[in-house]
Specification:
Blueprint: H1 83-87, H2 118-142, E1 168-174, H3 175-178, E2 189-197, E3 213-214, H4 232-239, E4 245-248, H5 249-256, E5 266-272, E6 275-279, H6 309-326, E7 335-336, E8 353-361, E9 367-374, E10 376-380, E11 383-394, H7 397-400, H8 404-407, H9 412-422, H10 424-437, E12 441-451, E13 454-466, H11 468-474, H12 479-494, E14 499-505, E15 511-517, H13 556-559
Parallel strand pairs: 4-6, 4-9, 11-12
Antiparallel strand pairs: 1-15, 2-7, 2-8, 3-13, 5-6, 5-14, 8-9, 10-11, 12-13, 14-15
Length: 565
């Protein structure tokens, strides 16, 4: 049986608000303590202050919230709690906030909570940056052939020359200091013109991807890459004291474009009396061309892979040599100059090339002589114009990201821009060589493989012509900055004592080191021998099993650099 709830009587107060004084002593409230205000169960309720009818809403000191205006016990001493206790009061509500009721379009959208503190804001920005980096990494790996391959920035490059323990490092120069250098040289002086040139065939300018032309092989023509000290003309000019510094356009362009280089290279410097000779080693990488040097997509590290940096360099040298002879009018007529080719024997068939020995005056005491090359000549308005001939090569569109056969006809500028990104150093060196040789035009050919896995057969897809000075401004190649680098290195080497030194580009850092080496260094370097005739490069044969063809080494006979004094 449930006990009934008895409601006590409510006394009436005729004098005002609240219970009468007599009601406090009644039996219904005799068991309650005196002067105890109402204590609410939930602290979120605003019951606890008596009504203050003396305050008006026109009072400027009142609270902005009208509901708070009637709750004030700061002037009432009947409560145990005072204003000091109220100032330390903090409302803590443990209830979860109500869930927002959005429509269907908000159902799957991520709700972000704004940070309330400075440290939370910093942490939120870090989390957003990590998410963005992870997204870029996923997108980067989706477009790569091998997701397990490390990034290009983490690739480890080897030095072009083995640094021996007995070598003494004299100095190291950061590439950042090269950007601050500037030097203006006067117009060069032509000392001698040697060799013979064939006329450029203008019909090759009409080649398009739809009427591509097969790249021919010129095995009977000899190509020479003779270093400075082995050049008989430079030796003769040195004996006649024609200059103080002697070099070639290949070595000089390497120094001028050093800040754009990624791969390691080295240049041998010999001080003999008051003269400097800048040379390359036998079998040096300066004889070959780099491919995808400045690209973000790494090349295979295995030398047996046809797309490795080593074999691509041999392939590019082979393509350039054959391209420079195929775009000529082969009618037997040649333009001759002061002297014949200084490196060819009598009756030997040589490639179309002319050597222009030019002298630049660096200051009142130092002058520089460089052997520069041009590959062809053309008559324009009854005036003779010299041309340099070079070729860009496409080996696999998945590395470059642009398919030449689809883009060359309609977006040739986009193809060139992509090559400027992937081969910035090579194109800058070609432009510098054209400027040094005083060429009126530089021709760039676009040569691609017949098949991405066949690195022996190629086709010419297009040929473009550019004026060297205009092209240098397009690729942001400043001549004053280039000569400033050369002047700084020459001044540094002129302070060295007599002996042999080597400039080495660090393989992993943007800097150049100078080492003092013994006088007999690099004399026993290994020179790669040509392959036997039965092992010469042949097109790959696919066996139909789906496996990649077994590709032999590059055609060394065609791409081997010959050095004859």
């Amino acid at each position: 049986m449930v006990e009934a709830f008895e409601v006590s009587g409510v006394p009436f107060n005729p004098d005002g608000w609240g219970p009468p004084d007599c009601a406090i002593t009644t039996t219904s409230t005799s068991n309650l303590p005196l002067n105890v205000p109402f204590a609410p169960f939930s602290r979120s309720e605003k019951l606890g202050r008596i009504a203050d009818w003396t305050r008006t809403f026109n009072n400027p000191s009142r609270s902005k919230n009208p509901s708070d205006a009637v709750f004030d016990f700061s002037n009432d001493d009947s409560f145990l709690g005072n204003a000091d206790d109220d100032s330390t009061f903090r409302l803590v509500d443990g209830k979860p906030p109500p869930r927002p009721k959005f429509g269907p379009k908000w159902r799957f959208q991520q709700q972000r909570q704004l940070p309330h503190r400075r440290d939370e804001e910093v942490e939120a920005k870090k989390r957003e940056a990590e998410k963005e980096r992870a997204r870029r990494d996923r997108q980067y790996n989706m477009n790569r052939s091998n997701v397990n391959m490390p990034r290009r920035e983490a690739a480890v490059f080897k030095s072009s020359v083995d640094i021996q323990p007995e070598w003494n490092m004299l100095d190291q120069i950061l590439f950042s200091t090269f950007s601050k250098l500037s030097f203006t040289v006067p117009e060069p002086e032509d000392l001698l013109f040697c060799g013979a040139l064939e006329t450029y065939d203008r019909t090759v300018d009409r080649i398009t991807p739809k009427n591509e032309r097969r790249l021919e092989r010129f095995k009977n023509r000899n190509f020479f890459r003779v270093t400075t000290s082995d050049d008989p003309v430079i030796r003769r000019l040195a004996k006649e004291d024609k200059a103080t510094v002697f070099t070639t356009d290949t070595i000089l362009s390497t120094l001028m474009c050093a800040p754009r280089s990624v791969y390691s290279w080295d240049i041998v410097v010999t001080r003999v009396g008051n003269k400097l000779f800048f040379d390359k080693r036998d079998g040096s990488q300066l004889d070959f061309l780099t491919v995808h040097e400045t690209s973000q997509e790494p090349l295979p590290e295995s030398k047996d892979d046809i797309n490795s940096a080593h074999l691509l360099g041999l392939e590019a040298a082979y393509i350039n040599q054959n391209f420079s002879q195929q775009v000529l009018v082969r009618d037997g007529n040649k333009v001759t100059f002061d002297e014949p080719n200084p490196f060819a024997n009598e009756g030997e068939e040589v490639a179309s090339v002319a050597y222009r020995y030019r002298r630049w005056k660096l200051d009142s005491e130092v002058s520089l002589v460089a052997r520069c090359e041009v590959q062809s000549v053309m008559e324009v308005n009854n005036q003779r114009s010299f041309l340099t001939l070079n070729a860009l090569n496409e080996f696999d569109p998945k590395y470059s990201g642009v398919d030449w056969r689809q883009k060359l006809e309609t977006q040739r500028g986009a193809v060139l821009a992509n090559e400027l990104k992937n081969n910035a150093n090579k194109l800058a060196k070609w432009t510098a060589q054209a400027l040094l040789a005083g060429a009126d035009m530089m021709k760039l050919g676009y040569v691609s493989r017949v098949h991405p896995r066949d690195h022996f057969n190629h086709v010419i897809l297009a040929v473009n012509g550019y004026k060297p000075k205009e092209f240098s401004s397009q690729i942001n190649l400043n001549q004053a900055s280039m000569w400033g680098i050369v002047k700084a290195i020459v001044d540094l080497c002129m302070k060295l004592k007599e002996g042999k030194y080597v400039l080495v580009k660090d393989p992993s850092k943007p800097q150049v080191r100078i080492y003092e080496v013994p006088t007999d260094a690099f004399e026993n370097d290994y020179v790669e021998e040509p392959l036997p005739e039965d092992e010469q490069a042949q097109p790959p044969i696919e066996d139909g099993t789906g496996a990649e063809p077994n590709v032999a080494a590059t055609d060394v006979e065609d791409s081997k650099v010959e050095a004859q004094a």
